[in-house]
């Protein structure tokens, strides 16, 4: 099968997200200028550079009360900071609860029953029990093609690692089993890994 996205795929559901998988989930927390916290998952998320460490996520929808975007992007525009909370398999239901479309200013931490902790380098809340948190300072917001597509880039200014995930000096993802986003309504968890040496190692 071949299709041009501009012409449509002719399938019951769009296969694009099922092709580009698995994708890490950026569970993004922000605080607005009035001090109200927000938390929502984004499946277009990844690390993009080592030095300095940088991450990105993109928001692809709108809310009627947020002028062409969603709460997190609007909050980041106001404050210039955000936090990426890494999602473990055990937190899948809490993560899903925070994907609900709530009125601006309503606290998803409370809705999902999640304990907050304050970030150390930015004025923002983080998911206290997450296996890792990346505190970030905004570097760019880029308007992408499409009606409501925004790319947010940030420099990581602080990193929290949960102690039980550190084994012999390495961050062991099998200790918490990262939740990943697939296509449609599908997810997967990482339970095992293997290593490959590069030819020039």
From TrEMBL:
Signal peptide: none annotated. Coiled coil: none annotated. Pfam families: Flavin_Reduct. One of its GO terms (molecular function) is FMN binding. InterPro entries: Flavin_Rdtase-like_dom (IPR002563), Split_barrel_FMN-bd (IPR012349). Residues 18-173 form the Flavin reductase like domain. This is Flavin reductase family protein. It comes from Psychromarinibacter sediminicola.
């Amino acid at each position: 099968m071949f299709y041009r996205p501009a012409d449509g795929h002719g399938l019951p559901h769009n296969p694009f997200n099922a092709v580009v998988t698995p994708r890490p989930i950026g569970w993004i927390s922000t605080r607005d200028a009035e001090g109200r916290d927000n938390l929502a998952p984004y499946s277009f998320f990844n690390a993009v550079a080592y030095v300095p460490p940088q991450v990105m996520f993109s928001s692809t929808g709108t809310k009627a009360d947020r002028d062409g975007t969603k709460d997190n992007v609007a909050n980041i525009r106001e404050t210039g900071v955000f936090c990426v909370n890494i999602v473990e398999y055990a937190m899948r239901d809490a993560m899903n609860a925070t994907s609900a479309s709530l009125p601006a200013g309503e606290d998803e931490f409370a809705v999902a029953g999640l304990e907050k902790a304050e970030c150390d380098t930015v004025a923002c809340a983080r998911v206290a029990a997450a296996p890792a948190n990346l505190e970030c300072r905004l570097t760019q917001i880029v308007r992408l093609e499409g009606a409501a597509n925004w790319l947010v880039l940030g420099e990581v200014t602080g990193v929290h690692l949960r102690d039980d995930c550190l084994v012999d000096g390495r961050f062991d993802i099998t200790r918490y089993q990262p939740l990943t986003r697939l296509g449609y309504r599908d997810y997967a968890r990482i339970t095992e890994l293997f290593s490959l040496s590069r030819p020039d190692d």
